[in-house]
C-alpha cells in the first residue's frame, strides 16, 4: 500500500509518494495570517461578557442556596414555634382531653355494635351514588299507567339483557361520552344508574369497569399519566367510586365506622362546649381559621333540668348548655342528650318542639329565637338567647310538641345543617347572634369572595393559633384512630383494595411506566382521594348523624390533612402556609409513612387475589341486589337512549360484531316496547 504524506517544515516543502521524493522548495507564509483575525477590542468585549455571565451564574447559585437555607431555617423555626405553642397549651389540652375521654367512655358503652348509628346499605348507597339529590332513583317507584306497565316492564327487562352484553354497554357509554350535550353531571348520573341496574352482576360490572379503565389508561399514557383518575370526568371514574363504596361497606361497618363516629362525637362535644354563632356558623372551638369566632364573647356554662317523660313517670334530666345559646341551639343540645343512643333521623326535629321554661306551679313561659321581646337596633335584629330571657342556672324546662309542625326529622339527603345567613330576614331586618356579619348585602358576590381571600391571607395572630392548637391537641387521639383504621395493614386490607392496586400495577407494567411516583398517584386518586376523603368530609354518608356547619368546618381541615398525607411532594411549611398545614406540620410526615407502608404492604401481598375477589363480588351481588330499584334505574337510563337514539343506533350498526349480534335491532325492539317508538323493524 502506498500513502501520500505532506510534511510542513519551517521553510522547505517536500512531497513523498511511495519511493518518490520531490523537493518543492522554500515556502513563505503571509506574516499577517499569523496574527489573530479577531480585533483586540472584540477580544476584550468577549472576555468581559464571559466574565459577567459567569458572575451572574455564581450570583444565582449563591442566591438559590441562600434562599434554600433561609427556607429550611424558616421551616425549622416555624416547627419550633409550633412545638413551643403546643407545649404551652399542653396543660389545657390534657384537661380538655380528660373531660372529653370521660364523655367518650360514657358513649363507648352505647357504641359497641347496635349503638353505632350506621346507615343501612340502601341509604348509604343512595347518598354515595346520588349526592345532593333529595329524591334518588332508589326511593322512587316506576310511575306508569297500569295499561302500559306490563309492556314497559317487558321492554326494560330486554334493555337489562342488552346491558349484559359487554359490546353494547361499552359502545353505549363511549357514544354518550362523545355527545356535546352529555354533561359531567350526566356522566355521574348514568354511571350510578348502571351501578344499580347491574348490582346483581357485580363480577360483570367489574370486568366492564376494567375494560373502560384500560381505555382510560391508554388515553392518559399518551398525554400525562399522572393526571389519571384525578377527577370524576368520565362515566368509568364514577363507576369506580361506586364500586369502591360497594366493596368497602362491610369494612366501614366492621372496622372504620366506630372510630369515625367517635371522631364525629368528639368534634361535636368540643364545638358545643364553646359559643357557636347561629347565623354565621363560626365557633370559638374549631380547627378552621376561617370559621373561628375571634371576638371575645362573655359566656357561662349552665345546667338545665329537662323534664323527660319515661313511660308514665316524668323525670328530670340534667343537660349542659351555655347562656349565650339561642333557643334552637338549646333544643338541639337537649335532644342530643335525651336521644343520645338514637339515630338522628329517628328523633324529633327541633322545630317540631317548643321549649317551655317552668317556674313554680303556674309559671310556664314558651321561649323562642324570635318574638316580640327580641332586641332590634337599626336594621339589626338579635336572636334570643337564655341570657336574654334571664334563665338561671338549674332552671327547669320541658320540650312540648308544637301543634302546627310535621313532627319527625325530615333529614335532607346529605344530613347537613347550614347556618341562617340569608332568607331569615323580615322587613329589611338582618339577624345576628353573637357577632354581626361584616358582609354588606350590597357588595357584589365576586367582591365578597375576594375580600374573604384577602382576610384569610393575613397572618393569623398567635392567640387564635393557640385556640386552634388547643382544639387540635384535644382531638389528636381520635384523628389518629381514624387514620390508623383506614391505613393499617395489621389486619388484612379489604380484598377490593388489594385487587384494584394489583390491577393498577399490571397497567403500569403493561405500558412501561416504571416511575413509582406515577403509580403512587394512581393509587391515591383511586382510593384515599376518591373514597376516604369523601367519607371523612361527609360522615352523614355512612352514619345517621347531623353535620352542622361548624362540625363540617373541622372535618374539612382533617380531610385536607389526609389529602396532604397521601401526596408524594415534600411537606414544608413557612410563615405564609395555610393554617391547616401549620396545625398538622409535625403529624403529616408520620401520616405519609403510614400511607407509603400501606401501599408497600399491599403490593407485597397483592398477587393471587382474583379468585377471592370474584367470590366476594358474587356474595355482594346476592346480599344487596334486592335493595336496588333496578327497574327505575333502567327507565332513567332509557331516557338517555331516547335522547341520543340515532347516534347509539348508528354506533351499533358501524360495528361488525354488533351487526352479527343484531344489537341495533334489539335496541329498536326495546324502544318499540317502552314508548311505542315506530322503528324499521
UniProtKB/TrEMBL annotation:
It comes from Ameca splendens. The chain crosses the membrane at residues 40-64. This is Plexin-B1. Residues 116-648 form the Plexin cytoplasmic RasGAP domain. InterPro entries: Plexin, Plexin_cytoplasmic_RasGAP_dom, Plexin_RBD, Rho_GTPase_activation_prot. The keyword NAD does not apply. Keywords: Membrane, Transmembrane, Transmembrane helix. It comes from the Eukaryota. The keyword RNA-binding does not apply. Residues 287-399 form the Plexin cytoplasmic RhoGTPase-binding domain. Coiled coil: none annotated.
Amino acid at each position: 500500500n502506498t500513502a501520500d504524506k505532506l510534511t510542513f517544515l519551517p521553510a522547505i516543502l517536500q512531497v513523498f509518494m511511495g519511493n518518490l521524493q520531490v523537493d518543492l522548495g522554500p515556502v513563505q507564509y503571509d506574516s499577517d495570517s499569523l496574527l489573530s483575525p479577531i480585533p483586540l477590542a472584540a477580544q476584550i468585549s468577549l472576555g468581559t461578557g464571559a466574565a459577567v455571565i459567569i458572575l451572574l451564574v455564581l450570583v444565582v447559585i449563591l442566591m438559590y442556596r441562600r434562599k434554600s437555607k433561609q427556607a429550611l431555617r424558616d421551616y425549622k423555626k416555624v416547627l419550633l414555634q409550633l412545638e413551643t405553642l403546643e407545649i404551652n397549651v399542653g396543660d389545657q389540652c390534657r384537661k380538655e382531653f380528660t373531660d372529653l375521654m370521660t364523655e367518650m367512655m360514657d358513649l363507648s358503652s352505647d357504641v359497641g355494635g347496635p349503638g353505632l348509628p350506621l346507615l343501612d346499605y340502601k341509604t348509604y348507597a343512595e347518598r354515595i351514588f346520588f349526592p345532593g339529590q333529595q329524591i334518588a332513583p332508589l326511593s322512587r317507584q316506576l310511575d306508569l299507567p297500569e295499561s302500559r306497565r306490563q309492556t314497559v316492564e317487558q321492554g326494560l327487562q330486554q334493555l337489562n339483557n342488552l346491558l349484559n352484553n359487554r359490546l353494547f354497554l361499552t359502545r353505549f357509554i363511549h357514544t354518550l361520552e362523545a355527545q356535546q350535550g352529555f354533561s359531567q353531571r350526566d356522566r355521574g348520573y348514568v354511571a350510578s344508574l348502571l351501578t344499580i341496574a347491574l348490582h346483581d352482576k357485580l363480577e360483570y360490572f367489574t370486568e366492564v369497569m376494567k375494560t373502560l379503565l384500560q381505555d382510560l389508561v391508554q388515553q392518559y399514557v399518551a398525554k400525562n399519566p399522572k393526571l389519571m383518575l384525578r377527577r370524576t370526568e368520565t362515566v368509568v371514574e364514577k363507576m369506580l367510586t361506586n364500586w369502591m363504596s360497594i366493596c368497602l361497606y362491610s369494612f366501614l361497618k366492621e372496622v372504620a365506622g366506630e372510630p369515625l363516629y367517635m371522631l364525629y362525637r368528639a368534634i361535636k362535644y368540643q364545638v358545643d362546649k364553646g359559643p357557636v354563632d347561629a347565623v354565621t356558623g363560626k365557633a370559638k372551638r374549631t380547627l378552621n381559621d376561617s370559621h373561628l369566632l375571634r371576638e371575645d364573647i362573655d359566656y357561662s356554662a349552665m345546667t338545665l333540668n329537662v323534664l323527660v317523660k319515661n313511660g308514665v313517670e316524668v323525670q328530670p334530666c340534667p343537660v349542659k348548655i351555655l347562656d349565650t345559646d339561642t333557643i334552637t341551639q338549646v333544643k338541639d343540645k337537649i335532644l342530643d342528650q335525651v336521644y343520645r343512643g338514637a339515630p338522628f333521623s329517628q328523633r324529633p326535629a327541633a322545630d317540631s318542639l317548643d321549649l317551655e321554661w317552668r317556674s313554680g306551679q303556674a309559671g310556664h313561659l314558651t321561649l323562642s329565637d324570635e318574638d316580640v321581646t327580641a332586641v332590634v337596633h337599626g336594621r339589626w335584629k338579635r336572636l334570643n338567647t337564655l341570657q336574654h330571657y334571664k334563665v338561671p342556672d338549674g332552671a327547669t324546662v320541658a320540650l312540648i310538641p308544637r301543634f302546627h309542625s310535621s313532627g319527625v326529622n325530615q333529614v335532607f339527603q346529605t344530613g347537613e345543617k347550614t347556618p341562617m345567613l340569608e332568607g331569615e330576614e323580615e322587613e329589611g331586618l338582618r339577624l345576628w347572634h353573637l357577632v354581626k356579619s361584616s358582609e354588606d348585602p350590597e357588595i357584589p358576590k365576586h367582591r365578597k369572595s375576594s375580600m374573604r381571600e384577602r382576610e384569610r391571607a393575613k397572618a393569623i395572630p398567635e392567640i387564635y393559633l393557640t385556640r386552634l392548637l388547643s382544639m387540635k391537641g384535644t382531638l389528636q387521639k381520635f384523628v389518629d384512630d381514624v387514620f390508623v383504621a383506614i391505613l393499617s395493614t395489621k389486619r388484612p386490607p379489604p380484598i377490593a383494595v388489594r385487587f384494584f392496586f394489583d390491577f393498577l400495577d399490571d397497567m403500569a407494567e403493561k405500558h412501561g411506566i416504571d416511575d413509582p411516583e406515577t403509580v403512587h398517584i394512581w393509587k391515591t386518586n383511586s382510593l384515599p382521594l376518591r373514597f376516604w376523603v369523601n367519607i371523612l368530609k361527609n360522615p352523614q354518608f355512612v352514619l345517621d348523624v347531623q353535620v352542622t356547619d361548624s362540625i363540617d368546618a373541622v372535618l374539612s381541615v382533617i380531610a385536607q390533612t389526609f389529602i396532604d398525607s397521601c401526596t408524594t411532594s415534600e411537606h414544608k411549611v413557612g410563615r405564609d402556609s395555610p393554617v391547616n398545614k401549620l396545625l398538622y406540620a409535625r403529624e403529616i410526615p408520620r401520616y405519609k409513612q403510614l400511607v407509603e407502608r400501606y401501599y408497600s404492604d399491599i403490593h407485597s401481598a397483592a398477587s393471587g387475589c382474583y379468585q377471592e375477589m370474584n367470590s366476594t363480588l358474587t356474595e355482594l351481588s346476592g346480599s344487596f341486589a334486592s335493595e336496588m330499584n333496578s327497574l327505575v334505574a333502567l327507565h332513567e337510563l332509557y331516557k338517555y337512549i331516547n335522547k341520543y337514539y340515532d347516534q347509539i343506533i348508528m354506533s351499533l350498526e358501524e360495528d361488525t360484531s354488533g351487526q352479527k349480534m343484531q344489537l341495533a335491532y334489539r335496541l329498536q325492539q326495546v324502544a318499540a316496547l317502552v314508548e311505542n317508538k315506530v322503528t324499521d323493524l
